[in-house]
Amino acid sequence: MRLEGKVAVVTGAGSGFGAEMARRFAAEGARVICADIDPAAAAAVASELGERALGAGCDVASAAEVERLAGTATGWAGRIDILVNNAAISQKPRRIASIDAAEVERLFAVNVISLLHAATHLVPVMREGGGGSVINMASVTAIR
Hints:
- By secondary structure, this protein is of the alpha/beta class.
- The protein is about 45% helix and about 15% strand.
- Strand 1 (about 5-10), helix 1 and strand 2 form a beta-alpha-beta unit.
- The radius of gyration is 15 Å and the shape is globular.
- The model has no long low-confidence stretch (mean pLDDT about 95).
């Protein structure tokens, strides 16, 4: 129960590493906002965790949706102590000429620009509550 009394926001919490981090934070006593582009997946993970968790749909590439997530977090828990920027998408290696510009723009929006949205809308909530921890996940595919 090392995180008793803490509130964590985990993006990409509807599956994979994000879901496992949400489970672990809850097991350690944190209240967890499970955010995911798939609201049903976020809700399913949150439901599994019980009263300690809330599912929230959020496309981290959208500043408006991340701002809404900040409002959801403060409305439900009053604060954010831990932010895990985990949501990401990948791209299979292929020749540059076969990649559509819209695909690259979406890749950057989710994997890079989303950090700006989090810093703009979620970090100020953390500051108002006295600070906290931000964990930015990365993948080995980033070095490709």
